[in-house]
Amino acid sequence: MDLLYVENPPGLQILHCLKASTQGGESLFSDALRAVKRIQRSRSDHYEILQNFPVTYKYHNNHEWYQHTRPHVETVTSPHEVSDYAPDADSDRLQLEPSIKAINWSPPFQAPFLVNVGSTASPLSTRGGKTSTSNEFRKYFEAVRHLKKELEAEEAVFEQKLEAGTAVIFDNRRIVHARREFENRGGERWLRGAYVDTDAFRSRLRVLKEEAT
After folding, report:
1. What is the CB-side half-sphere exposure of residue 210 using CA atoms within 13 A?
2. H or E element in which residue 174 lies
3. Which long-range contacts (CB under 8 A, 24 or more apart) does 62-65 make?
4. What is the distance between the terminal CA atoms of the chain, rounded to a whole angstrom?
5. How many CA atoms lie within 13 A of 123 on its CB side?
């Protein structure tokens, strides 16, 4: 998932394959919502940790420093806000059971963990004796390993070799993506990426529905 270090990450991501004459480089996709739902059913304690433990994402390069802290699982509880992934739009149901709003998973851009996130935050060291904080970290890493296992399960991964001229569009707050290794000898591999804001997408979708009726 991309740009989790900004306050409002894009809703849709587009990968356009311009050149693909190398061996390998297959694109891999996994549904993080499916993974989290499975964890919610099998290990509610892991789900609660993923929903509440603060994780900081950071991009600090080329005289720019973007940073934002959010849990792996974001939920909505207000009866006035409906998740895109809610099974229905029943506000009473949302009051009783929080619905998943977004999944956040981007290990390459995770920053050092913080203490007192949002106030006098400082990097947290896990060295020393066993404390309540180290116990929280142990539980967190157990939950994260569970999530990683679900995401990388063979039956959960969709693999597709993108050919030149093709593009894939997916939900940046739900789908995780990666690629296999590729040979860079005797060929070219060139992908261009773009993003679409969720509000712009929804606006266009509403207009198209209106025009179709």
Report:
1. 6
2. none
3. none
4. 35
5. 5
Start-end of H helices in 43-131: 44-52, 91-96
Q: Which residue has the tokens 């929280």?
A: 136
Provide the Cα torsion 105, 106, 109, 114; round to 10°: 20
Looking at 38-164, which runs of residues are DSSP E strands?
Answer: 55-61, 64-70, 73-76, 99-103, 114-115, 122-123, 157-160
3-state secondary structure of 96: helix
Q: Please report how many Cα atoms fall inside a 13 Å half-sphere around the Cα of residue 6, on the Cβ side.
A: 10
How confident is the model over 86-114, as pLDDT tens digits? 554 444 444 444 588 899 999 999 998 86
This prediction has a pTM of: 0.80
pLDDT digits (tens, 9 = 90+) for 7-48: 999 999 999 999 877 787 788 999 999 999 999 999 999 999
d(CA 114, CA 121): 6
Gap between the Cα atoms of 208 and 213, Å rounded? 9
DSSP state of 125: P
Give the type of residue at 76. Answer: V
Dihedral sign for Cα 168, 173, 179, 184, please: positive
Dihedral in degrees, nearest 10, Cα atoms 205, 207, 209, 213 = 180
Assign 147 a pLDDT band (cuts: 50, 70, 90): very high
